[in-house]
Amino acid sequence: MQNIKTAIIGAGFMGPAHTEALRRLGVQVVGILGVDQAESDKAAESLGIPKAYASFEDVLKDKEVQVVHLTTPNKLHFPMAKAVLKAGKHVLCEKPLAMTSAETKELVALAKETGLAAGVNYNMRFYPLCLQAKDMVQTGEAGEIHSIVGSYVQDWLLKDTDYNWRVLAEEGGAVRAIGDIGTHWMDMVQNITGLKIVEVLADLKILHPVRKRPKGEVETFSGKVQDIQATENVDIITEDCGSVLLRFNNGASGNLWVSQATAGRKNCLRYEISGSKTALYWDSESPNEIWVGQRDKANERMLKDPGLASDAVRPYIGYPGGHNEGYPDSFKQSFRAFYHFIAAGDPSATPQFATFEEGHHEVVLCEAILKSHKEKKWITV
Question: For the chain, which terminus, N or C, has the lower number of CB atoms within 10 Å?
Answer without folding.
Answer: N
